[in-house]
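Quick entry, no commentary yet.
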Amino acid sequence: MTLWPFNRLSRGQQVAVVALLAIAAALVAPQVYAFGSGGEGTVKVVEVSGIIDSDTSQQFEDELREARHNDSVEAVVLEVDSGGGQPASSERMYTAVERTTEEMPVTAYVDSMGASGAYYAMAPADRIYVSPSSSVGSVGVTGPAPTPTGPSAGQSGPDKGSLHPEDDRAGTELIQETFIDSVMEQRGDKISLDREEVAHARTYYGVEAVDNGYADRIGTLDDAIHHAADSAGLDSYNLEFNRSESSDVGILGLETTAEGDATIETSDDSSINPYQPQLIAPDVWHHEVAPQLPDSAVAVESGGEQP
């Protein structure tokens, strides 16, 4: 390949080439933006969007671990737009946020929705910003009523089949109680509702969430970023966006196997079993999951009133 010597180009052509190279570099470079003169440190924005599953939580944990190990990162902002997902994955994200708050300020911002498992994950944040119409809360468990089945061929014992209804109910209650305990531990001094009211698992509009203590301020993502930087003592800072490839808030499809098992297929090829208890906001469950389940699957919720 023959390269045309740069110094043989006209002044105007040189300017055009430099501009094009700058644009190309911006397109392939990480999304890092500098504020102030040079920046005293970095505020890292980590996205929480779509259905929370094992892949989502793993990517989230990796992002926060990188932030904790990167000496230039002084604060983290969680950009949340999710209706929840798997209990175990939500718990892992909660633990990652809690661990990060021990080392640097963590602020959360809820765009359209920060409910159920997503609210669980961000509960340890130092401050939660919401928009007036955000859907926030839903501290509860959603799922279909259990269908008892006997042991099938190849099982090593009678208890290797599906859970008995009473066992499944006890498991759901345990998940619910753990969820409530965590929320009360992190925000009990801010939430004006008692434990029983929290257990109703209502979803609140942003303005209501600020009023009852589920959130702290009405604001924007910029407000959350500025607060995080201020909490870290940064007068000028670099801003790093890390956009994930997680699924949309909605469910993308339900597949049923020959054995009758169903899984929710998300955009990253992971799956959620809708027949197990999930930390998914009721409106997402009823509008996205329930219509795809067999008529025999009757949903049960631990609360779940909508605003």
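second:
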Amino acid sequence: MKKKIIVTTAVTSVIAISTAFGAYAATKFTIMVNGKAANTDAKVINGLTYLPLRDIGTLLGANIQYDASTKTVKVDNNASQSPSTGTGNSTTPPVGSIGLSRSNPAPLGTTVTYSVKDYSDSYTGQLTLEEVIRGDRAWQMIHEENQFNDPAPDGYEYVLAKINVKVVKNNEKDAQVRFNSYSFTLVSSQGKDYEKASVVTPDELEASLYEGASDSGYAAFLVKKADANPLIAFGRDYDGKGGVWLKP
């Protein structure tokens, strides 16, 4: 049976494989792209099997962008682009690029340069982990900031991470980039995201920056006392890839 590949720029932004009379509607099959299986859900509608364009684009190494103002889906080759934080349009960072992958996080005091290009932002930025305070001292600072802050649950303790953020170049003229402590997530050494710490944070990171501007502030996290090597993630892709990774 012949199969036809259809790329559509409808709001759903999918790739459709046409099959006569919906022959595959009740049949499991595998989509291979450059020798890799597409780990994605398929839907059969009116005899057509639909696959998310972004999932196929990721396997092809393509940059998928959606312009809401013109309702246009753009598909570009990523080969010539700089490393990205993720955000749905990440490229694969060069081997050895410190801070641009979970397997190679940036240690304290190391500046990581990254690029973002998505539906809302298009800029090059830098992140630097400047200070890490953990345990009793972190709780003391949090309690002094607001006496109604709750102590850490049993088996957990607070971590305060002071992070410097900078916008090196903004491709959107006269636009600001917004950062806050909730832009960052603590990931356990076992690979599980910790829940956000809901506390009033001393000197909390909160900044809207034009090109060339920078700022520093704290982000507060809860971590298991036995977890000696958690990581801080920023700007990951929807599937957890990419982003900037810092080692507190």
